[in-house]
Description:
This protein has 186 residues and is α+β, with helices and mostly antiparallel strands. It has helices at residues 2-19, 26-30, 54-59, 65-74, 93-97, 103-107, 113-121, and strands at residues 86-91, 124-126, 139-141, 147-153, 156-159, 162-170, 173-178. The chain has a single domain, classed as FAS1 domain. Helices cover 31% and strands 20% of the residues. A seven-stranded mixed beta sheet has the order 2-1-7-6-5-4-3. Helix 4 (65-74) packs across helix 7 (113-121). The chain is globular and about 40 Å long.
Amino acid sequence: MALRISIYTLIILFSISSCTSSTTDATAAEGGGIDQNELTGQSGVDDGVSEKNILHVAMGSPDHTTLVAGVKAAGLQDVLTNAGPLTVFAPTNEAFAKLPEGTLDNLLKPENKSTLANIITFHAAPGSYGEDNIKGVMGIGQATGDKVVVTIEDGITYVNGAKVLGTVKASNGYVHVIDAVLLPPE
Length: 186
């Protein structure tokens, strides 16, 4: 009986330690200013085996470091790791660089956290809209309650005028890489 309890205890301890691994995700250093060790809650779960969720896809992209920094500053890490499904329109670093000078620095200030969170939330839609099925809709309801307009011009998909550069499937939805920052209506 004591041996059986000891084996169960070892199994439970092993399970807990493998779920709460504190090793640094190598792609985090490349992709966006959030180290795996900084993540808590749902966003901190990384078993090293599962498909990457939307946050981890962004963290692994050297073209999305600004977006990841904004997600962190807005405190939205766990939102992008939940079960979803979610569809995220992810502006590249170049897209953020197109904003008027000083805009990004201003948004990243703690006193502008709610404004930043609203802008980032405007880039996310509840539901799973892959590369093919966003082409067939005229508008997609975003998490802010607003809609984005999807158009096709010469075979290229645009969302609110931002060109869709590519699509990545994540464990909890889709990431559509775009070339502009989407701003919610005022």
